[in-house]
Amino acid sequence: MKIMAICGSGLGSSFMVEMNIKKVLKKLNIDAEVEHSDLSSATPGPPIFL
Q1: Mean pLDDT of 17-38
Q2: Taking a C-beta distance cutoff of 8 angstroms, is the pair 32, 3 a contact?
Q3: Nearby residues of 6 by Cβ (< 8 Å), 6 or more positions away
Q4: In the 8-state DSSP scheme, what is residue 40?
Q5: What whole-number distance in Å separates Cα of residue 41 and Cα of residue 46?
Q6: Which pLDDT score is estimated for 9?
Q7: Average pLDDT over residues 19-37
Q8: Are 18 and 5 in contact (CB under 8 A)?
Q9: Dist CA 47 CA 34 (whole Å)
Q10: 2: left (phi over 0), alpha (psi -120 to 50) or beta
Q11: What is the end-to-end Cα distance of the chain in Å, rounded?
């Protein structure tokens, strides 16, 4: 599973969301690739966008 945290500039908000997602997934023992990015760099497709 791939999860992308997206915000306007891809720096602060999306990074904080990425860290929180990783923390929750670790507690739930779920293996997933989590990244953060800005809205213009995000490409539509299979990843789950938050």
Answers
A1: 95
A2: yes
A3: 14, 36, 37, 38, 39, 42, 49, 50
A4: T
A5: 15
A6: 82
A7: 95
A8: yes
A9: 9
A10: beta
A11: 13
Cα 34–26–1 angle (5° rounding)?
Answer: 40
3-class DSSP state of 34: strand
The structural domains of the chain, with segments of one domain joined by +, span 2-49
What's the rounded Cα separation, in Å, for the pair 36 and 7? Answer: 8
pTM score, whole prediction = 0.78
**Angstrom distance (rounded) from CA 10 to CA 33:** 17
Token output for 4: 């992308």
The pLDDT value given to residue 22: 97
Residue scoring higher pLDDT (44 or 36): 36
